Amino acid sequence: MNPGRYHLALTRAGRPAMHGWWGSEAVARAKVTEWIGSWGRPGARITLVDEETGDVLTTWPNEA
Length: 64
What we know:
Helix content is 23%, strand content 42%. By secondary structure, the chain is an alpha+beta fold. The chain has one domain (1-22, 40-64). Strands 2-1-3-4 form a four-stranded antiparallel sheet, covered by helices on one side.
C-alpha cells in the first residue's frame, strides 16, 4: 500500500523527527511551508521527495 507519492521528512540534528505522505504535489508543497513555519529552526532539515521518480523536489534550508 502506497500512502502517497510525495514524501515529506523532517530531521533534527540528523535524526528523523516526523514524516508525511501525500498524493498531491500541491498539498505536499503547502505542507513544506507549514512545516517550515512550525519546525524550521537551526539544526532542522525538511525534504520533499517524489517517491515515484526519486527526485528531491525541495529542501529547507536551501543549499547553495
